[in-house]
Amino acid sequence: MPLETKKTNLEMFLGQNQIQNLDSRYYFYGISVAFFIIFPMSMYRFYTNDFVIGMFDLAISLLLLSLSISIWRRKKVQYVNYVVFGISSIFMLIIVSVKGINSFMWIFAFVGIGYYTINKTVALASSILLSLASTLIVIDQITTEFLVSYYPALILLNILLYLGASKSENQQSLLFELATIDSLTRVKNRLAFNEKLDDLSASLSRSNQTVSIMILDIDHFKKINDTFGHAEGDEVLAVFAKLIKASIRSSDSVYRYGGEEFVVLAYNSNLDSAAKLAESIREKVAAFPSLAKYDLTVSIGVTEIPAKDENATSWLDRADEALYLSKKRGRNKVYLALHDETSHTDSYQEYAKYFNLESSLENKDEKIVSLNSYKA
Fold it and tell me: Which positions fall inside the GGDEF domain (predicted)?
């Protein structure tokens, strides 16, 4: 199967099951299995009148159960897994102090749990500290034979688990890149944009941040592909994406929305400043030397998502409508989508007409972000 096809299938899959949800799902399954192993053992301890260890085993199993429930509900593992692992390790040391050297075999299980639930570096450090502490507790029971069999096995286990965790992190990093980065233009893709839009809908209602959206569409791109071939068309897209990235601030973000269409999210930027940015990009595209032979132009739709708004998707639709008008009314234009909160009506104006109208008004908005804050 070609890499691009694999990437597409992967993106379709991750669109329904986010990467972080996959993480929490694996944690949930693994910890649940550990619970169903340790809980019956605690019952066996009680059955054999080993009440002290039975209580410790029961406490550990209940902690694992609480962690599983927390992960299932919150879909997150941050911090909770560290707390439970730390408490479980303390219980492990208590069991060693009560049962002696015969309980050392359980350290291997807790080392494995550490690499499974927490950061690999912390898991390695925890393994070393847990082993040293356990050794000091039963130092008088340790024999030479025990030393030459137990510690080499523990060292080998840590090496294998550490390497396995490192490989897993590298694979997850690659997975994340395949899922969120467009391979051609090296900007974020539509999946990443949809996730960000969801985050904006949740965060804007709690903040005073104003965000503007602009949708950019290369004019007559099909003609470029038909005339110069798809290879050159791909190169045009890559150059176009670099030009956008060079024109925005590091705090802004650009996404390939589909085909020759891109989206820019300009943070802490109202309609006026975002419109000026869009116009500067439009001018740069038309005058960019490496794109001159293609007579390349771009149409752009811009709108502002007001602070405290909970429906960022509706503003994307407004920006898309503004883009449609810029394409319909001659292309190579910037159109702005304006929304009147009082009458709940939308209006659309071309960049030049909007700023001519604005310049005739007194007491202009002092919040306008200077275009100098963007890269030249």
Answer: 209-339
